[in-house]
UniProtKB/TrEMBL annotation:
Protein name: Gonadotropin inducible transcription factor
A Pfam family the protein falls into: zf-C2H2
SMART domains xref list: ZnF_C2H2
Species this chain originates from: Pararge aegeria (speckled wood butterfly)
Sorted UniProt keywords: Metal-binding, Zinc, Zinc-finger
Entry keyword 4Fe-4S: no
SUPFAM superfamilies: beta-beta-alpha zinc fingers
Domain of life: Eukaryota
A single MF term (Gene Ontology): zinc ion binding
Length: 66
């Protein structure tokens, strides 16, 4: 699901469809889609986490109503 800013953003993540106006925030966000942020991967947006518990909270808080 596209974020509200995705279409108008200067920097757009084509993995999870979030938009960013700041290049540094975008670069940090891209790292979150790599093993640098952990081995547990969200099946919805591809974000990586270090623990299964964090992944469970992420899915519940971010994707529950999508």
């Amino acid at each position: 699901m596209e974020s509200k800013n995705y279409r108008n953003a200067l920097y757009s993540c084509t993995i999870c469809y979030k938009g960013f106006v700041n290049r540094n925030a975008y670069s940090l966000h891209l790292d979150s889609h790599t093993n640098k942020f952990g081995q547990f991967v969200c099946p919805v947006c591809g974000i990586h986490t270090f623990s299964k518990g964090t992944l469970t909270l992420h899915v519940k808080n971010i994707h529950m109503y999508e």
